[in-house]
Each structure stands twice: as structure tokens, then as C-alpha cells.
Amino acid sequence: MQPLADPVDLILLREAALLRSDGPVVVVDDQDGALARGLVSELGVAEVRVSCDALSEERAVRQSTADMAQVRVLPPGPELWQDVRRVLLRLPKGLAALDETAEGVARWADPTVELLAGGRVKHMSRSMNDVLGRHFGSVRASLGAQKSRVLIATGTAPAATSPYPVCAADADLGLTVCAHGAAFAGPAVDLGTRYLLSFGDTFARTARQVVDLGCGTGLLAVAAARTLPEARVLAVDESRAAALSAAATAEANGVADRVEVRRTNLMEGVPDRSVDLVLCNPPFHRGNARDSAVAFEMFADAARALAPGGELWAVYNSHLPYLRALRRLVGTTDVMGQNTAFTVTRSIRTV
Ligand SMILES: C[S@@+](CC[C@H](N)C(=O)[O-])C[C@H]1O[C@@H](n2cnc3c(N)ncnc32)[C@H](O)[C@@H]1O
């Protein structure tokens, strides 16, 4: 069995052991299956249902719990929540993500449900209590351990309807952005994304197959579908919240017939040398930590999928060392624009 090294997992399991209720337990955003395994092997839970926003985490959970018939991985929905009176959640980075999850728990789980939300103290704020307090009558904090703590929410106060996805019009872009809680930047437009879109008239006009890689709310995909009316656009993201948001954004802007959305790792399933244009605002965080590894994976996968002569347009914080990586991984790369914060590049696939 894997050791339970993560302090947030440890304190969540400690608090779960103190709960009085029984029945199935739902784990939201288990990172790697350690929580699900601990619930079964240490607490003797007979049924654990796991739901993950990120496909990479979902795959890690499936792999690490493959030998446990007690564990099932499910998408959010009635099957996940039915008769659930215990929920374990690793606190997400964003308040909207917490809000949407808490809202769903309060609405779909058993009214006696106890929600345990754990995190590192340095990443927790009073606002998290307030968000939980919108959906539960009581929110208290556990004792801390190893610089981690659990918020315990009870007494559901379910809303009649969910506000998600939240949609907002952006007057400058003339687009409506729709966002589920965990989607990057919510229903606002990230400044880097806005800067990349200011080069929209320069994107290859002949492009027919376009990919928005790491689509978030799908703004780049939808803008491309509008600028390039003959193009078919694929929006991909490993986050379920992002994929659902991008589909809603495409629908809200009347281009759902030309924007296909997939929840995938990178451009999995996209044939080699088949794409004319890739648009990408890559992540430079993994959770709360800075990490460029995924950005480099995205550039390499764009290079694989681009047809000869195809273009990758990327935007990134100017201090990041991406120019060299783009030249090495993709091909000839020019800086098309640079402002105080962001750099926009165009890389052309030459072989
Ligand atoms: C900086 S955000 C950009 C979102 C959107 N394109 C925009 O400009 O607003 C990066 C996105 O990449 C997604 N992402 C991270 N790792 C990924 C992966 N391995 N495969 C696909 N998407 C990924 C994240 O979920 C996030 O939505």
C-alpha cells in the first residue's frame, strides 16, 4: 500500500474517522487515490465514490485503486451524490470552485451530510469559511496538524438552482464568457488571453483545423471560430469544469456547431500533422506551485499535431523562459508582441 505522506490527506482521514455517520463516502479531487485507499483500508469504508476535475488526477485514482472494488470513479451527478452523508474535499485554489462544489453537495447529498474540506493553512483564508457558510448552517475548523487544517460544514442550506455556469458579456471582445467554478479566470477575460486575441487578425486566414489547447472557458476557440468562419475548432482541456465552460461559451456565442470540446490530456486523439493553427495560453502553475512542465508538454504536443507550415500562437508571462523552448520544440518562432507583462509568439512548424 502507498504511504499516506500528504498532510492534508492525513488530517482529512483523521477527521473522517471521527464522523458518526456511515454509508458511502464521496471524495472530491483526490490527487492520486491516497484518500480513497485510506478510507477503505484504514477506516473500513465499504463504498467510496471519487470525482476529480482534472483528468490526470482521475487517471491516477483509477490506477492506484484498481485493486479495490469498494472504490468507483464517477462524474458529478445523481449517482455520485445519492445517499451520501460524508464528503471529503481537498480545498481548491479558487473560491468559485469551492462555491460550486459546496453548492452541489448541499443540493444533492443527504441533508445530514458532513463536508470535510482540508488544506494547508498557508493556502486557507477566512473567505473559504464564508463560501461554505453560503451553503451550510455551521462551519467550524478542526485542530491543526502538520500546518494543515479541515473545515467541517454541516446543516445544508440548499439553493433552488445553481448559478453555474456564470456567464458575462465582454464588451471589448463582443463575446460572452461562461464559466464553471474551477475554470481559469472565471467569467472574466485573462489579460494574457486578451493580449493574444488582439493579434486575431494576424492568425493564419487559411487555417481550417484549429485547436485551442488548454481552452479554459473556450474564449480562444470561440474567437477563432468567429474570425475564421470556415474553420473547425477543437477546444481541449483536462479540466471537466473547463470543458463544460467552453461548451457553454460556444453555445452562448452561437458557434457550438463549429466548436467541438473534449476533456483530454493535451491533444490526445488528434492525429499527427493534422492541425493548421494551435492557440495556447499555457498554465504555469500546478496547484499552488509554479511549474512550467505542462507548458513544455503542450508545446511538444502542438509540434506533433501541427501540419508542416502550421502555426502555434502562444501567450505567456514575459519573465518565463519559453522562447527557447518554442524554438527547440516547435520551430521558427517570432515574438509578435510584448507588453509589460506578456509575450505573444508565433511558431511555425517547419518539418
Ligand atoms: C492559463 S489557462 C488558459 C485557459 C484559456 N485558454 C484562457 O486563455 O483563458 C491553462 C489551461 O490549461 C489547462 N490544462 C492544464 N494541463 C492540461 C493538460 N495536461 N491538458 C489539457 N489542458 C490542460 C488548464 O485546465 C487551464 O484551463
Characterise this structure.
- The chain is of the alpha/beta class and 351 residues long.
- The chain has 2 domains: 7-156, 3-Layer(aba) Sandwich (Rossmann fold), CATH 3.40.50; 166-349, Vaccinia Virus protein VP39 (Rossmann fold), CATH 3.40.50.
- The protein is built from 11 helices and 18 strands.
- The chain has a 7-stranded mixed sheet, sandwiched between helices. The chain has a 7-stranded mixed sheet with strand order 12-11-10-13-16-18-17, sandwiched between helices. Strands 8-9 form a two-stranded antiparallel sheet.
- The mean pLDDT is 95.
- It binds S-adenosylmethionine.
- Residues 184-185, 190, 193, 214-217, 219-220, 236-239, 242, 265-266, 281, 283, 294 line the site of S-adenosylmethionine.
The CATH class of the largest domain, by name, is Alpha Beta
Strand percent estimate: 25-35%
Radius of gyration: 21 Å
- The name of the CATH topology of the largest domain is Rossmann fold
Q: Which architecture of the largest domain does the CATH hierarchy give at level 2?
A: 3-Layer(aba) Sandwich
| CATH homologous superfamily title of the largest domain | Vaccinia Virus protein VP39
How large is the count of helical segments?
A: 11
Q: Roughly what is the average pLDDT, rounded to an integer?
A: 95
Distinct ligands, ions and cofactors found in the model: S-adenosylmethionine
- Main β-sheet description: 7 strands, mixed
Task: Give the CA-CA distance, first to last residue.
Answer: 46 Å
Count of discrete domains: 2
Shape: elongated
Helix proportion: 25-40%
- Class inferred from helices and paired strands: alpha/beta
Low-confidence stretches: none
Pattern of helices and strands: HEHEHEHEHEHEEEEHEHEHEEEEHEHEE
Q: Major sheet: order of its strands?
A: 3-2-1-4-5-7-6
